Model the fold of this input.
Amino acid sequence: MSSKMPSLRLVNSQKACPPTCPDSKTTQCMSSSMRPADIRYVLERHLKREEVIQPKREIGRFRGEPVYRRQNVLSCKTAENWMRIGRKVKDRQEPLKWVKQRAVTIQKRRAQELAMQESGESIQQGLYAQHQTEVYIPPPIVDGKIPTNSFGNIDLYAPTMLPAGAVHLACTSRLLELSRANEQTRVSQK
Done:
């Protein structure tokens, strides 16, 4: 690292408060005393679980920790969550970050418990940024048969997820006895 890297300074907001300010303002001044001078910068330890710094260019140091630009912080999602907004992860993309998988269903909880018993480690899940995804284009309808998932449903989380040649009808396909698939439009937590 270059010795010419700037170090961030802290702003003591007590100095900004007039000495004659009422108690309510003094309390407010005291609670925000010693805050970073600018919110355009971030320390890696302040990132959320789903955030990653890309590109990881250090612009300075603060108390020995590297400082990065806030504009380089990317919000990431799992492949499953990208699918829920109508996008899929491109081929041959490596996750930007690995995190412990959240067990929100009984099936995932059982898989995590089994993994902990076998290897002593929790299941890790990859996180991807938007530039690593593309719009999901479903397989086309072949011989009048709608492509379905393993449960016999079609996932329609976004309008782009409707297969070419298909039309989304609300409950009328049962009356007309057409080839149909139940749509999965949202995830329910039980």
